[in-house]
Design a protein that fits this description.
Length: 669
């Protein structure tokens, strides 16, 4: 049947989409020759031009379709990216609650399992594939049985159940060879290669024979789907071994197949591998274009695993370009994709490197520790799976020997026993190596835990010391404030008295910051809105008259400010609010004081502080840059310290605008 000859595209191709280039050391090699760079640019132009072609989103479902026609049409729609129509077609087939009563139900379960597998719903895919496999065995439907086994193998592989994946892929291979089904043998070989690729000991020289055999069989059967997959993975194996010229012909063939077929998952694989080759050639702009194409495609197709991988690649791109805020943004997006195992060790290492370059060494240390923890668990997990690989090989050999014994009438029983004994010794040797490795890992984990406890103890001591410092600074500032108050009370000079009161308020605003830090868990950062409201209440105690009616409001993002930013912001607002209370607040009217935080477009981490009252404003024609007022001089000086420039205008009251960065390393010294 024609649709059966193409249905397993999603099973094999998904292995490429989800597992190719998760760890790609060849992408960090030295620059490539000019000839190869030209070849890559030529491939980029072909792929990018093709991505601009409009896709056919029409969905035509004839009521007269037979079951065979529905399955074939559904597959065609899914391959072209119109998965909604595919789903509609599949679910339009009335399913019986009595499981697997007819041949059509077996094929429907298989088609639904492959559809769910292609859209990363692996647990549900396995459930339906198991049902299809049971029904196929009962009905003697060999090809449907193999298809179901390959879906279970691929879904298990995506869920990192390597032993299960090996077992079902090996069963599919043996059945296809027993019945001399070359088409399914080629697909089974491809799945075996994907299993070997994800094994702990997987190397290119281990997976390459599977892909080569699959390629030969697909050429004989004219199976373009497996031909694409085998060429793509052969190219990647050469790239892994730093053999770029040897791999390019296979990549070129795969690209031509993908462009001709219009298959969306094939296009995604081409986008990813070609973008990484362009990065190797330092063609970052071209690489980013393909990554954006890949991102658009995965969002449209709702493929969570591919979406997570694409976000991580875009994060790498911005990291290479030294655009750290954007890099961290996409790394966080990658880690937050729902329905995906986000415990890759390299994801946390990427975030650690970004935080390190941003100067946030504590967050970097946390990310490195998490990455190390994930890498340790992954190492132990894969090392245990190594024995499973040998067991799968042993079972394959045992089945082959059983067939040989039946054909040769027990003529080689002695050799069979010797073979089993040798394989047993290999397994025993592998088990011994594994036990030694686990002992070594246990010792390393104990050492890491000890170092972690020492670091936590040091961190606790440091936090206690910082809290004590903030507390003492706050107390000292309160003493200074009290001294200024005593001096003010004993002075008869009105100017001196006013200056002392202003100084006292400035000292109190700084003391308020240290008071906040003392009670804060972070010890170095302050919530903006809460701090400003407390500062306003503190100033009200000094200047607010009973007959004054004031509406005070703080709006905008509730930022968390570092101390080096909070101090100048607090002093600036102290001067502005003090000035408003002195000259703008009048009795008998509705007085307003508005403070707003507005993000500045196209400037990451930069905000604009807007302060407004409804008073009479500054004298007309006053040049604030040349003002002799001490308060205005303080505001101008602190604004420059924040890296911004003070802007004043009159709009039914005084309006002051001050741009600033929330990161202290952007401040002007």
């Amino acid at each position: 049947m024609q649709y059966q000859m193409r249905c397993l595209l999603h099973t094999v191709l998904l292995g490429i989409v989800c597992f190719i280039f998760i760890d790609t050391p060849w992408a960090q090699t030295t620059s490539v020759p000019i000839v190869i760079e030209k070849e890559l640019l030529s491939l980029f132009k072909q792929v990018n031009d093709h991505s601009k072609q409009p896709s056919d989103s029409t969905c035509i479902i004839e009521t007269s379709y037979t079951f065979e026609e529905k399955m074939s049409k559904a597959l065609q729609y899914n391959r072209s990216g119109n998965w909604q129509c595919c789903e509609k077609l599949l679910l339009s087939e009335p399913g019986s609650e009595k499981i697997l009563k007819s041949k059509d139900n077996v094929q429907l379960y298989t088609a639904l399992a492959e559809y769910l597998n292609s859209h990363h719903q692996y647990d549900s895919s396995i459930v339906l594939a198991v049902k299809a496999n049971i029904g196929a065995k009962r009905k003697d439907m060999v090809r449907e049985e193999i298809r179901a086994l390959l879906v279970i193998a691929n879904s298990s592989l995506q869920l990192r159940k390597i032993y299960e994946a090996y077992k079902y892929a090996d069963s599919a291979l043996q059945i296809s060879r027993h019945y001399n089904d070359k088409l399914m043998e080629g697909k089974s070989l491809m799945q075996m290669g994907l299993c070997a690729r994800r094994h702990f000991t997987a190397l290119a020289n281990r997976t390459l024979p599977y892909y080569m055999d699959a390629k030969k069989i697909s050429e004989i059967n004219n199976d373009s789907l497996i031909l694409f997959s085998s060429n793509m993975l052969i190219a990647d194996d050469y790239f892994q071994n730093h053999k770029l010229p040897e791999g390019l012909p296979y990549l070129r063939t795969a690209v031509q197949i993908a462009l001709k077929s219009g298959n969306v998952q094939q296009k995604y694989s081409v986008y990813i591998i070609l973008s990484m080759l362009l990065v190797q050639s330092e063609l970052y702009d071209e690489s980013f274009i393909l990554l954006k194409n890949a991102l658009d495609l995965t969002k449209k197709q709702e493929l969570p695993y591919s979406l997570q991988h694409t976000y991580l690649r875009i994060s790498d791109h911005f990291h290479l370009k030294k655009q750290l805020d954007s890099s961290l943004y996409y790394a966080n997006l990658s880690a937050s994709v729902q329905g995906v195992d986000s415990s890759w060790a390299n994801m946390w290492i990427v975030k650690a490197n970004i935080y390190k370059d941003l100067g946030d060494f504590k967050s970097a240390s946390d990310m490195y520790e998490r990455g190390l923890d994930m890498a340790t668990k992954d190492f132990l997990y894969r090392n245990q799976e190594q024995l499973s690989g040998y067991e799968a090989t042993l079972k394959t050999k045992e089945k082959e020997l059983q067939i040989e014994v039946e054909m040769k009438k027990r003529s080689k029983i002695l050799w069979t026993l010797w073979g089993i004994l040798i394989l047993f010794l290999v397994v025993l040797y592998a088990f011994t190596i594994q036990r030694r490795a686990r002992r070594l890992l246990t010792a390393q984990n104990i050492m890491i835990e000890s170092q972690k406890q020492q670091l936590e103890k040091s961190l606790d001591e440091k936090n206690i010391l910082i809290k004590e410092i903030h507390h003492r600074v706050k107390n000292n500032l309160e003493v200074i404030s009290s001294l200024l108050e005593l001096q003010s009370n004993s002075s008869n000079d009105l100017k001196a008295k006013s200056a002392l009161e202003a100084g006292q308020i400035r000292v109190q605003s700084i003391a308020l910051i240290h008071h906040k830090l003392y009670h804060s868990e972070s010890l170095a950062k302050i919530a903006f809105k809460e701090f400003i409201e407390d500062l306003y209440n503190q100033i009200c105690k000094v200047f607010l008259r009973e007959d004054a009616n004031i509406m005070f409001k703080v709006s905008g993002d509730d930022l968390i400010l570092e101390m080096d930013v909070a101090v100048p912001i607090g002093l600036i607002l102290n001067e502005l609010m003090t000035n408003s209370f002195k000259y703008a607040v009048k009795k008998g009217i509705q007085n307003t004081i508005l403070i707003q935080l507005v993000p500045i477009p196209d400037q990451s981490s930069w905000y604009k502080l807007v302060y407004k009252d409804n008073g009479p404003g500054l004298p007309e024609g006053l040049n604030i840059e040349k003002s002799t007022s001490l308060g205005m001089k303080v505001i101008l000086l602190l604004t420059k310290q924040l890296g911004g420039k003070l802007n004043y205008y009159f709009d039914h009251g005084s309006v002051f605008e001050i741009p600033f960065s929330i990161y202290k390393n952007n401040l002007k010294k």
